[in-house]
Fold this protein.
Amino acid sequence: MGLVKRYFALFLGGSLAIVLAAGLLFAQVEQGNYAPATLGQLQQPSPAALTDDSVYQVAAYPQYTPELAEGEGRAETASFCSLCHSTRYITMQPPLPAATWEAEVTKMRKTLGAPIPDASAALIIKYLQTHYAPETRKQ
Amino acid sequence: MANRLPVRPSALSRRSLLGLFGAAGGTLALGAMALRSTASQVRSATPPFTGPEANPYWNSVGPYVTEPQKAPLLLLTDRGVQLETPRSYFQTAITPNHAFYVRWHLDSIPNAVDLKTWRLQVEGNVAKPVSYSLADLIRKFPAETIAAVNQCSGNSRSRLEPRVAGGQWGNGAMGNARWTGVRLRELLRAAAPKNGSVQVQFQGLDSGPGPEGYGSHFFQKSLDMTDPVLDECIVAYAMNGEPLPMLNGFPVRLVVPGYFATYWMKCLTWIRVLDKTDDNFWMKSAYRIPDTPRGNTTPEDVKAGTVKMIPINRMPVRSFLVSPDGDTKIPAGMPVQVRGIAFSGYGGVTKVDVSVDGLKTWQPARLDEDLGRYSFRTWEFTWTPKGPGRYTLAVRASDSAGNTQPDQTVWNPGGYLWNRIERQDYFVGAAE
């Protein structure tokens, strides 16, 4: 009886050591970590339908219009700036000082001929300064 | 995991079994806690903008988008189209066409070109105006091929402090391709420029809604008739042996080896010899640099109006550390192949040095095959980090004109000519 007891204790101790060792081994790797995700997911364009004439054509260039910040002057900014370029030109910028935004709008009007009336230009400048300056930019 | 443990449950009482699983579970839990810091997570997106400090990322921060004939590239703007090439595409000396960056100024760019009617015109102050179909260019002239880097003037603009307005490029507004086409000199010779020719102007198929005479209407760039670079210019109809992607200038674009990409007119359709200096917006106001060493100046000097500005021209020497990208940990003691590219607009790359101790000491990297003096040159450096820690590697290149990249920053109002020594931080972990 004593012998059986001793063997059992030995067996139990050995098993415990093995299990602990195995546990430590498994604890050194991590496996099977999956999670739902959409980051980086893009739709795949289907192949184009081609003809053998002299016209070399590609699909329409996609527009990825950004959300501009809510606020007074947003509509003017979106409509006048979009005459020549996407409003991504605004959201792409780092936060710019008020004077820089004023200079940019002035450059668009005077140097590049954008037909923006004075009143609208003032609204646009104010809007950009209010939402896209270092002190104010949030999105 | 429990069923993989080397235990035979039948040999044990229920009590000891529970005890054992408890112990094993405990060690697993401890292990999991230790691993938590390195576990792979579903990652969050880069922020939608950077600043007012310098952009800390290698690339710009825009999302991946798909555009015609392109692999997913990083979006700066969608109209005009501006797309940046992700870092991983610079592991090879030749940039694939489908990954080559894109930069247009105006919003009306070709979706289709009819080669039955399209003609390249050579006109202006010439004795014999002449026009060529694409077939003429391919058949009537010897084909020349050159490997040359095309880099946007504003590449790395997001590094400047204080930040400047403009395309907020990371380092991916560049690419290297084998360009095949006709020597510009041959086309000019055939048209016979008249006496008093000062510059040659280039214009492509792009246009904008702005009023005529303004930069928002046409994009035009000019080079001096006396500029030696004209001897090296090619009107390219092939890029890496294939037709140019529409977004890179199908059917032909100008290749100006060593010069910034602003002169490399896409969809080139008019070559116009001028009898006076071009004073259109894109020459007179835009793409101008301070006439100072490295084009460096300060906002104060610009404001004071004391800075003489000249048209941008050749690309200063640069080098980039491409791989590994620092995104994964490196085990201590393991040799790592550090790779990258180097180039210069002033002649071939002669030397690339790597520092593994935060710019204190420098060791030469191995240069790979030379594809030509205006090409990317790939380089490789074997680095064996001895122990765990955070390491800053840096790379600097020298060119055959004797220029070596400095560690000083650059600032000018256009955000051009950045060529400071590049760094990459790596985390090295314990391996025993």
